[in-house]
Amino acid sequence: MTVGIVGAGQLGRMLALAGYPLGLDFLFLDRTADTPGAQVAPSLLGEFTDPTLLRELATRSEVLSFDWENISVEALRAATRGLRTRIAPPLTALATAQDRKLEKQLFDRLGIPTTRYACVESLPQLHAAVQKIGLPGVLKIRRMGYDGKGQKVLRKPSDIAAAWAQLGGVPLLYEEFIRFDYEVSAIGVRSRNGQIALYPLSRNYHHDGILRLTLAPWSNPALARQAHRQLRLLLAHFRYVGVLAAEFFVRDGRLVANEIAPRVHNSGHWTIEGAVTSQFENHLRAILGLPLGSTAALGHSAMINLIGSIPPRRQLLAEADVHLHDYGKQPRPGRKVGHMTVLAESARQRDMRARALLRRYYRRLPAIP
Ligand code: AMP
């Protein structure tokens, strides 16, 4: 049974690695040959919108999925027309996650608290949005943003023109700047027959817009209840199939939804070693119509992203509890090239261990617990 995946990044690679023990095969489509996915499975080489290649991918696969959301919904839909190949997660979820306006409107419709926002397509509209929402605020491109790219914080009136000069020309969204206490994410999975399983909450630490550290389970029953209720609403709304992640700010014990990702998520990498069934395996089970595995945590996990380059392998592996995941990417500043996970018996031990590892491998990183 072959799973076709559009995008062969580290998420695709980890999907394939999770699927091999289940007896699955994989076929990727990506723009370059030397991708993390292509190192572990065959890959078609070309544009994500290439109709011939997408059609080939669809024809050779039982189900089509994607590891990256900045792809064309239309091209995907056309690729499977007249075929029995299913697409999962649903394209309606992909289209919503691709546009911050649609995402906010959905949060509003489902009663999920989110930031106050205004859509902006001109400099006068940006002035009006700042007038309405206030300062500070964050100006974001509506589409194609990731890892904090395509956004600018506005703190004073004189920042307006500069932010417009930098980001203007494409549809934008201006939202209030949230003075959050911290950030969490919730990851859930829904199968084709409507079975739902939810992972424990994760607490996430970003720096320069990039996730650095995830601690999970983040034990806060009141927050977990809120997050899981909202995740269930989202999963039901889309009649979702596969893994869905939702990111939240936490302010005064309440969640403020930031965004959703219709795919396996970086803040769920801890589930590989830290949960009975990983997010990757459960995504595959869901999209293939198989029963879901348990999402229970096995201990207390800390996942640290390796950014730019992998520290010396011998040194990392001398940390006897470290599970290293090297994505096989060329080093480049700011690039996620791997991650490591440690498991501990208590949250306190986990946090101490995470702190020690961060000190050792992230000497210049400020402000992490
Ligand atoms: P995003 O691409 O929307 O996930 O933003 C990346 C990161 O920027 C988030 O994880 C936050 O740390 C920060 N951020 C985004 N939007 C806001 C906001 N409205 N207020 C405060 N921080 C934000």
Give a quick summary of the entry.
31% of the residues lie in helices and 28% in strands.
Span between termini? 44 Å
Provide the β-strand percentage band: 25-35%
Percent of residues in helical segments?
25-40%
Ligand species: adenosine monophosphate
Number of strands: 18
Q: In this structure, how is the largest beta sheet organized?
A: 9 strands, antiparallel
Categorize the overall geometry.
globular
How would you summarize the topology of this molecule?
Blueprint: E1 2-6, H1 10-19, E2 25-30, E3 43-45, H2 51-59, E4 63-66, H3 73-80, E5 86-87, H4 91-98, H5 100-110, E6 117-120, H6 123-133, E7 137-141, E8 151-154, H7 159-167, E9 172-176, E10 182-190, E11 196-198, E12 202-207, E13 210-216, H8 221-237, E14 242-251, E15 254-261, H9 271-274, H10 279-287, E16 300-307, H11 313-317, E17 323-326, E18 336-344, H12 347-361
Parallel strand pairs: 1-2, 1-4, 2-3, 4-5
Antiparallel strand pairs: 6-9, 7-8, 7-9, 10-11, 10-12, 10-14, 12-13, 13-16, 14-15, 16-18, 17-18
Helix pairs in contact: 1-10, 2-3, 4-5
